[in-house]
Amino acid sequence: MDAIDSRIIDLLKRNARSAYGDIGAVVGLSASAVKRRVDRLLAEGVIRSFTVQVDPATEGMSTEAWVELFCRGTVSPTELRRILSAVPEVVYAGTVTGSADAIVHMRSRDIPSLELALERVRVAPNVDHTRSAIVLSRLVNRTAG
Amino acid sequence: MDAIDSRIIDLLKRNARSAYGDIGAVVGLSASAVKRRVDRLLAEGVIRSFTVQVDPATEGMSTEAWVELFCRGTVSPTELRRILSAVPEVVYAGTVTGSADAIVHMRSRDIPSLELALERVRVAPNVDHTRSAIVLSRLVNRTAG
DNA sequence: CGTGAAACTGGAGTCGT
DNA sequence: ACGACTCCAGTTTCACG
Predict the structure, then answer these.
(1) Considering only CA atoms, which of A89, A103, A108, A99 is closest in space to residue A132?
(2) Which terminus of chain A has fewer Cβ atoms in its 10 Å neighbourhood, N or C?
(3) CATH for A56-134?
């Protein structure tokens, strides 16, 4: 993971379909050398996957919410992961410092389906209550480069 | 945007470097038919871009925080966007319902640089105060498929 | 890490429905 | 208008130096 690797990743973030030769021309390597590095970065797990960034709105997932999760007693992160992974609307979740135990980012088609998903989180054992904030407008989204 | 488009997007999410012919073999179309659909989806903005999903930890961005933003008086979403876009550590932001005006997802190398970035957000005009929650452990991350 | 050759893919045009 | 087919330039992928 040297400086050239970083530059290659930077270029791939902007366009994951760039030809290896084009990348090589920028960073000063041959196409095969670039491919070898990309293969290595994939094997090492630095590059998780090649994906497309889709407009959530046109994909029919225009309703978003941030949910703070408050639990009774102590809930292990492992159990929280199990609960939250089961709800497909959960896009991102993490345990946090502060009064809440975890914060959850949810994305769904509309308010009713969001409410349904929220209900599925709430009924989980040891979940005391939740505090939700519906997203009104997205300001910044650099999630994938 | 029909059922086949959805399936194509689904396949591209999993591997954005799939050959059009391979995608066509799965959805029952020829390579050129798939390409035309992908080009159309790109032109329509349904597909925003082809990117790579990089492991934030190995990229040296292991510190994350959620920040609630409280403003004085009324701040337009446009101005908030301008302020937050200027801080590269801001990964995601949106205006929300509830007591906070906006919620911000930040990602940085370490605590000191996170504090610096937070300071840049705080000094913006009309920002009254912020409430931060540092992420202890990531539970779910389905941000990019 | 670079070079070269073989196989494959992408891009554009054309035709049929 | 949309999908299938064909050709050629360009790209990927492998060997080896």
Answers:
(1) A103
(2) N
(3) 3.30.70.920
Tokens of B133: 């929650």
Please check whether residue B2 touches A, CB under 8 A: no
Q: Where are the domains of chain A?
A: 3-44, 56-134
Residues 82-121 of A with CB under 7 A from strand C: none
Q: Which of B52, B80, B134 sits opposite A9 (nearest CB)?
A: B52
List chain B residues with pLDDT less than 70: 144-145
Q: Which amino acid is at B71?
A: C
Of the candidate CATH numbers 3.60.10.10, 1.10.10.10, 1.10.10.60, 3.30.750.24, the domain formed by A3-44 belongs to 1.10.10.10
d(CA A105, CA B142): 10
Tens-digit pLDDT profile for residues B90-131: 999 999 999 999 999 999 999 999 999 999 999 888 899 999
**Is strand C in 7 Å reach of the CB of B32?**
yes
How far apart (Å, rounded) are the C-alpha atoms in residues A34 and B6? 32
Please report residues of B whose CB lies closer than 8 A to that of A53: 47-51, 144
- Are residues B29 and B38 in contact, defined by beta-carbon separation less than 8 angstroms? no
Distance in angstroms (rounded) separating the CA atoms of residues A97 and B114: 15
Taking the C-alpha atoms of residue A119 and residue A114, their distance in angstroms, rounded to an integer, is 9
